[in-house]
C-alpha cells in the first residue's frame, strides 16, 4: 500500500514506514520455567520468590504450588516434586489439565496403573529430565521417569502430585 502526500506543488507518493521483521519464536526448553526438573532459579524467574509452604520442607509459589527441591549431580537445586493445590474440588480430568503446564515439555505418557492405596498413577518419560538429573535419582526406574497422581479413588480432587521416579 502506498500513501499519498499532497503538497502545495503536487502529489508525492511515499512508502509506508517499514515494520520490523517479526523475531523468530522458539519454544521454551523442556525444563525451562516452572516445571518438574527445572532449576530453582528458573522457577523464581517464572513465578517470583517463594514463601515457606504449610509443610516446611516445601517452597510455596503463589497460593497453589508447593515444590520440594533436591540437589542433583550438577549441584543445581531442581524441582523434585511439585504439588498443585486446588482451591476447590475439581473433576480429575480438569485437575490433570491444570497441572499439564508443570510437566517437562517433552513428557510422554508411558502407562497408567492403580497403586495399592487406590491411586491412579500416570507414568511419564522425559529425555530432558533424564539428561538433567542423570541416572541416580530414579532408584532403579528408567532415567527420565516421573509420575503424576490426581485420582485417589474418587472422580474429584483438590491436589495433583508430580514427582521424579515411580514411587507413589
Protein traits:
mainly beta; two-stranded antiparallel ribbon; 8-stranded antiparallel sheet; 168 residues; 40% strand; 10 strands
Give a structural overview.
With 168 residues, the chain is mainly beta. The strands form two sheets. An eight-stranded antiparallel sheet has the order 3-4-5-6-10-9-8-7. The N terminus is likely disordered.
Topology (SSEs and partners):
Elements: E1 3-7, E2 10-14, H1 40-47, E3 51-52, E4 59-61, E5 65-71, E6 77-91, H2 92-99, E7 108-114, E8 119-125, H3 127-133, E9 145-152, E10 156-164
Antiparallel strand pairs: 1-2, 3-4, 4-5, 5-6, 6-10, 7-8, 8-9, 9-10
Radius of gyration: 23 Å
Total beta-strand segments: 10
User: What is the overall shape?
Assistant: globular
Major β-sheet annotation: 8 strands, antiparallel
SS-based structural class? mainly beta
Q: Could you name the ranges where pLDDT drops below 50 across 5 or more consecutive residues?
A: 1-9, 11-24
Number of separate helices: 3
The largest beta-sheet arranges its strands as: 3-4-5-6-10-9-8-7
How many individual domains? 1
Amino acid at each position: 500500500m502506498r500513501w499519498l502526500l499532497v503538497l502545495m506543488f503536487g502529489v508525492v507518493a511515499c512508502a509506508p514506514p517499514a515494520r520490523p521483521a517479526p523475531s523468530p519464536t522458539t519454544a521454551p526448553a523442556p525444563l525451562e520455567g516452572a516445571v518438574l526438573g527445572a532449576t530453582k532459579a528458573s522457577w523464581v524467574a517464572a513465578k517470583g520468590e517463594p514463601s515457606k509452604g504449610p509443610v516446611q520442607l516445601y517452597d510455596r509459589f503463589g497460593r497453589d504450588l508447593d515444590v520440594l527441591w533436591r540437589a542433583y549431580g550438577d549441584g543445581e537445586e531442581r524441582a523434585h516434586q511439585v504439588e498443585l493445590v486446588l482451591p476447590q474440588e475439581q473433576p480429575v480430568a480438569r485437575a490433570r489439565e491444570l497441572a499439564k503446564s508443570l510437566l517437562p515439555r517433552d513428557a510422554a505418557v508411558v502407562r497408567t496403573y492403580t497403586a495399592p492405596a487406590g491411586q491412579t498413577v500416570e507414568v511419564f518419560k522425559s529425555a530432558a529430565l533424564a539428561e538433567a538429573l542423570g541416572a541416580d535419582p530414579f532408584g532403579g526406574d528408567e532415567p527420565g521417569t516421573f509420575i503424576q497422581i490426581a485420582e485417589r479413588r474418587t472422580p474429584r480432587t483438590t491436589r495433583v502430585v508430580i514427582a521424579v521416579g515411580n514411587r507413589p
